[in-house]
């Protein structure tokens, strides 16, 4: 089983969009038994792939009051399951400090057992949850808008997690009409890039992965390319 964390220091950078679409690629294009575990109390991934309900059970998985298998639900897509988030996760950092188990998330992931891929949609910020994620993940994928503030945030992530786990930066919301975006991509031509596209917003509004809502769009192809690159890295 491989655990891939989608993480960013900043919010609003398309983190949940990456998580949903990579999970769909893993399940559909690679036929992997995939679990998307939403750890963000905003529950955007859960809303797109799940029933949109608020169950207030998500944190109980970490306190061991509830087995993860009791919360995992099947999605509309073959081989893709969801462990949804809800507002109870807003106190997750406090719980991690209280229980003082540095590898609690890693242990729970290891005990899941029935999936080939686990994708973690992580809350933003350098928090105790982020440190738990770093101990649990085999790869951290970081969405980076081609802007100075987002690039500065990525540099902080590199310093914080450097050496603990492989990190893959991904340029997101790329608009090649903007000089700053073009310059950023020229500085890092080896980074994968996801273009800014109305197809992403339209797919989210329909609560679908982009490749289902707009299968022939350039952004759907970009998600596929990114997933294939992650697959190659997994096989090394």
Describe the structure.
The protein is an alpha/beta fold and 236 residues long. It has a single domain (2-234), classed as P-loop containing nucleotide triphosphate hydrolases (Rossmann fold, 3-Layer(aba) Sandwich). It is built from 10 helices and 8 strands. The protein has helices at 15-29, 44-49, 92-99, 104-112, 128-136, 148-161, 179-187, 198-205, 210-213, 218-234; strands at residues 2-6, 34-38, 73-74, 80-83, 117-121, 139-144, 167-174, 193-195. It has an 8-stranded mixed sheet, sandwiched between helices. Helix 1 (15-29) crosses helix 10 and helix 4 (104-112) crosses helix 5. The chain is globular. The chain starts with a strand and ends with a helix. The mean pLDDT is 92.
Could you write a compact summary of the structure shown?
The chain has 236 residues and is an alpha/beta fold. The chain is 42% helix and 16% strand. It has an eight-stranded mixed beta sheet with strand order 3-4-2-5-1-6-7-8, with helices on both faces.
In CATH terms, what is the architecture?
3-Layer(aba) Sandwich
Name of the top-level CATH class: Alpha Beta
Which sequence of SSEs, written as H and E, runs from N to C?
Answer: EHEHEEHHEHEHEHEHHH
Q: State the helical fraction.
A: 40-55%
Multimerization state: single chain
- The overall number of domains is 1
CATH superfamily: P-loop containing nucleotide triphosphate hydrolases
Number of strands: 8
Uncertain stretches:
none
What's the N-to-C terminus distance?
14 Å
CATH topology, by name, is Rossmann fold
Order of strands across the main sheet: 3-4-2-5-1-6-7-8
Name the structural class.
alpha/beta
Radius of gyration of CA atoms, rounded to a whole number = 17 Å
Largest sheet: 8 strands, mixed
Shape type = globular
